[in-house]
């Protein structure tokens, strides 16, 4: 190990809140941060590529933890739920993104200095097919 | 929604492989990509801030999916397991990091254009205390 990473928990990333980090919930939060006025359930479902049941389940978790509000109403005489990020949810999500940036930076630096890598950055061409 | 994100699954991030994405395993993989020659179990445990049992469990998952190899040997007459990233594991982890970069980019762009934000980038000062 190098001197710089001898610290306990150097790569533990405690800030990766499990409520946010789950893939589907990360999709939901990214969709909602991109739409500050909120999104109707069907639009959110489509952006996240989730089923009704899955999206409902994850929204319940996010609502319980005060990340989102779910407002029931009507649009064109049909019932509609609009999902919005709360101010606190937005703040915590931005904190989480800072940790995620750190993960990418740590790993990219390490990968670049590895023996098999001759290039800079995370070239999309290296993605598995 | 804007024209650019009308696509189905725009924010679904299918590339976030669940084997990699789990927080503890993300710690393990980042630690190992930073140490191409491998790490003894106790060093890896310390860097990731994990217990013996937790690290063993996650290494079993990663080994099963051919991300890591676990080599048992001796150091100073004591048994020692050295953990290393496989070439395929390294490649898949780099692909995953590309998707993670995309998440950060998508969310940072969205957060910057939000109504409450007057600054650029993910300022660490916005992290919750």
Which key features would you list for this structure?
homodimer; 129 residues; alpha+beta; Arc Repressor Mutant, subunit A; 3-stranded antiparallel β-sheet; 5 helices; disordered C terminus
Q: How much strand content do the residues of chain A show?
A: 5-15%
What number of domains of chain A? Answer: 1
Largest interface: A-B, 58 and 58 residues
CATH architecture verdict of chain A: Orthogonal Bundle
Low-confidence stretches of chain A: 116-121, 123-129
SSE topology string of chain A? HHEHHEEH
What is the spatial order of strands in the main beta sheet of chain A? 1-3-2
Estimated helix fraction of chain A: 40-55%
Reading off the top of the CATH hierarchy, the class of chain A is best stated as Mainly Alpha
How would you describe this structure to a colleague?
Two copies of one chain form a homodimer. In chain A, strand 2 (68-75) and strand 3 (78-85) form a beta hairpin. Chain A is built from five helices and three strands; from the N terminus they run ααβααββα. The first copy, chain A, is an alpha+beta fold. Chain A has a single domain (15-109), classed as Winged helix-like DNA-binding domain superfamily/Winged helix DNA-binding domain (Arc Repressor Mutant, subunit A, Orthogonal Bundle). In chain A, strands 1-3-2 form a three-stranded antiparallel sheet. At the A-B interface, helix 2, helix 3 and helix 5 of A face helix 2, helix 3 and helix 5 of B.
């Amino acid at each position: 190990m190098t001197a710089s990473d001898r610290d306990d928990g150097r790569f533990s990333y405690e800030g990766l809140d499990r409520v946010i980090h789950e893939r589907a919930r990360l999709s939901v939060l990214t969709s909602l941060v991109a739409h500050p006025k909120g999104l109707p359930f069907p639009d959110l479902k489509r952006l996240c590529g989730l089923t009704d049941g899955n999206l409902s389940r994850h929204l319940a978790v996010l609502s319980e933890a005060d990340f989102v509000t779910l407002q029931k109403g009507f649009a064109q005489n049909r019932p509609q739920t609009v999902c919005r990020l709360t101010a606190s949810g937005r703040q915590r999500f931005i904190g989480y993104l800072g940790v995620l940036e750190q993960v990418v930076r740590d790993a990219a630096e390490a990968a670049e200095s590895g023996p098999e890598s001759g290039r800079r950055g995370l070239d999309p061409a290296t993605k598995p097919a």
